[in-house]
Each structure stands twice: as structure tokens, then as C-alpha cells.
């Protein structure tokens, strides 16, 4: 259950300041970490298992969603021992089509964006009805967007109440709260929005919709990790994290995993608590994994086009 909203809590969220220089130093250090060959092999497979394969385009069709789900279940047919991805993420109207392929006992979760994605600008009753309908159609997870305008205007109570109401509308589905960090302006705002979302009941906090730039960065992700760590130390409750947008190559994905391990620890090194919102990352991971098996890079044509 979310903690009761109070002016004291609001002041705490807003008053904490991020040490930008310290963030930069820690990110630079994570980028230089050396990963041994066997560990890298394991981390590449883990990263694949943490991806939310996503299609959120106007030209999405049932056939495209079916293909995405088949890839999520079996990322590379020539290597059937590879893990599945964590989830597929689609628009609400595509949830039934995704469920046709995933079935009811799939290791791949079915996520859907809701609450007037990507702007978040719709009346709350309409957003909540969209969430309830999407869950009823078979979604395991809901990715919601906060009203960034309300947050930037200082109306934290409105943002809090919308998250809490959305969490209730989710029922048994897990809720990922998208902050759209590229629109928040400062790391201080990212920290405050992270604390607010966690207090209001988020199961995951997520950087971005992927529709604007900048999307995920190591800096914003570290600040969000720290908000999660603070909450865990205060309550013992684990909250998930999902950087999304702009993570396209394996090298960068490994930097994120280093930062995750060094900040939150081993308990978060699973797709139950960490996801990549990065469909284009999957093929680069597959190329890197295949290279370690075959000894050379394969043509991109060997891998399905997302």
C-alpha cells in the first residue's frame, strides 16, 4: 500500500539534492570496469533475459505483434538454449493478439502501456478505465506515464493520487511508472519524482517512454537506483527499475548492469527487479553471444528484424 501523502513527505522529496559531480564520477567508474570473459558471457545472457521487447507504433499489426512474441519466447532459433526475454510491451489493443502467442503460462510477461501514453494528458477516469480494460484483456504489467506538467508545476499531490489510483486499478498486475526523465530537467527533479512514484505505490520506476530525447542515461538511472536503495533501507521493500530508450549495444547494457550491481546489489540482478526497455539491444546481444560460441561475428541478416 502507498504511504499516506503528507506535506512533510513532499518537502522531503523536493528538498533532497543530488551531488551531480559524484554522479558523474560513479558513472565514469562504471564505464571503466573490466569484466572477465566468462562473466561477460553470463551477463550477456542475463541482459537478454531482462529485455522488454517493445512495439509501440501506429503501424503495429497483429502479425507484427505475433512475430515479436515468438522472438521473445525464442530469441534465436539456432541457439534454443538461450533464455527468453523478460516481457513484450504493446499498446492495449494488441494485448489479445500477444496473448494468443504467449499463452497463459509463459515465462514472458505481457506488458502494455496505458494512461494516455505517451503524454499522460487525459482525464483520470478515462486513464483508469483504460488500465482496467487492459488488465482484463490479459496484461500482466502496466506501464503508466506521469503527468509531467503537473509535477513541474509543483502539483505533487495530483501526481501521487494518479499513481495510487492507477495502482489500485491494476489489481494483480504490476505497475511500472514512467517519469519521462528527459522532460524533468534536472537530476534533483528525477530524484524527487522517483521518491514520489515509489511512495505512491510503483512496483517499478522507469526512465522514459522512448518517444523523446534524451531517454535513459546512466546518470538518471543511478539517481533512480539511489531512490530505490533509500526506500529499501527504510522499509525492506524492493522496487524494480527499467531504463528505456537509447540503449542499443551490449557494451552500454553491461555498464548499466555494473551500475546496478554496485548500487543495489545481487538481489536486483534478475528480470523480476530490472528490465531494459530496449528492443534494438536484443540483436546486438545475440550477435555478441553468437560470436562467443562461433568465434566470429555473424551477419545481422541472421537475426530477425524487430
What does this structure look like?
The chain has helices spanning 7-15, 20-31, 37-49, 62-73, 95-102, 124-136, 148-152, 156-170, 187-200, 218-235, 250-263, 279-294, and strands at residues 52-54, 87-90, 109-113, 141-145, 174-178, 204-206, 240-242. It has 306 residues and is α/β, with parallel strands linked by helices. It has a single domain (7-293), classed as TIM Barrel (Alpha-Beta Barrel). The chain has a seven-stranded parallel β-sheet. Helix 9 packs parallel to helix 10.
CATH topology: TIM Barrel
Report the major sheet: 7 strands, parallel
CATH H-tier superfamily: Aldolase class I
Stretches where pLDDT is under 50 for at least 5 consecutive residues are: none
Mean pLDDT over the full residue set:
94
Number of domains as seen in the coordinates: 1
In angstroms, what separates the terminal alpha carbons?
A: 37 Å
Count every helix, treating DSSP H or I runs of 4 or more residues as helices.
12
- Elements, N to C (H/E): HHHEHEHEHEHHEHEHEHH
User: Taking strands numbered 1, 2, ... along the chain, how are they ordered across the largest sheet?
Assistant: 1-2-3-4-5-6-7
Topology:
Blueprint lengths: L6 H9 L4 H12 L5 H13 L2 E3 L7 H12 L13 E4 L4 H8 L6 E5 L10 H13 L4 E5 L2 H5 L3 H15 L3 E5 L8 H14 L3 E3 L11 H18 L4 E3 L7 H14 L15 H16 L12
Parallel strand pairs: 1-2, 2-3, 3-4, 4-5, 5-6, 6-7
Helix pairs in contact: 1-9, 2-11, 3-11, 3-12, 4-5, 6-8, 8-9, 9-10, 10-11
Name its key features.
seven-stranded parallel beta sheet; 306 residues; TIM Barrel; 49% helix; 7 strands; alpha/beta
Amino acid at each position: 500500500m502507498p504511504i499516506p501523502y503528507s506535506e512533510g513527505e513532499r518537502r522531503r522529496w523536493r528538498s533532497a539534492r543530488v551531488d551531480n559531480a559524484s554522479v558523474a564520477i560513479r558513472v565514469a567508474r562504471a564505464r571503466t570496469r573490466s569484466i572477465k570473459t566468462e562473466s561477460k558471457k553470463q551477463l550477456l545472457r542475463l541482459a537478454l533475459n531482462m529485455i522488454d521487447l517493445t512495439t509501440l507504433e501506429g503501424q503495429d499489426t497483429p502479425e507484427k505483434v505475433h512475430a515479436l512474441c515468438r522472438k521473445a519466447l525464442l530469441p534465436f532459433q539456432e541457439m534454443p538454449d538461450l533464455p527468453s526475454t523478460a516481457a513484450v510491451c504493446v499498446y492495449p489493443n494488441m494485448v489479445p493478439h500477444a496473448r494468443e502467442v504467449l499463452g497463459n503460462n509463459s515465462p514472458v510477461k505481457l506488458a502494455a502501456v496505458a494512461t494516455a501514453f505517451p503524454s499522460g494528458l487525459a482525464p483520470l477516469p478515462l486513464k483508469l478505465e483504460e488500465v482496467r480494460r487492459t488488465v482484463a484483456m490479459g496484461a500482466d504489467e502496466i506501464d503508466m506515464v506521469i503527468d509531467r506538467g503537473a509535477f513541474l508545476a509543483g502539483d505533487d499531490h495530483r501526481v501521487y493520487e494518479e499513481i495510487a489510483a492507477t495502482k489500485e486499478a491494476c489489481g494483480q498486475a504490476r505497475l511500472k511508472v514512467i517519469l519521462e526523465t528527459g522532460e524533468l530537467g534536472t537530476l534533483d527533479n528525477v530524484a524527487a519524482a522517483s521518491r514520489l512514484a515509489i511512495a505512491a505505490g510503483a512496483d517499478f520506476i522507469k526512465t522514459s517512454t522512448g518517444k523523446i530525447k534524451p531517454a535513459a542515461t546512466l546518470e538518471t538511472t543511478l539517481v533512480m537506483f539511489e531512490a530505490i536503495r533509500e526506500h529499501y533501507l527504510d522499509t525492506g521493500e524492493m522496487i524494480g527499475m527499467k531504463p528505456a530508450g537509447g540503449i542499443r549495444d551490449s557494451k552500454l547494457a553491461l555498464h548499466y548492469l555494473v551500475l546496478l550491481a554496485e548500487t543495489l546489489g545481487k538481489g536486483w540482478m534478475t528480470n523480476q527487479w530490472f528490465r531494459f526497455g530496449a528492443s534494438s539491444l536484443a540483436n546486438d546481444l545475440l550477435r555478441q553471444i553468437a560470436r562467443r560460441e562461433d568465434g566470429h561475428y555473424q551477419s545481422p541478416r541472421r537475426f530477425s528484424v524487430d
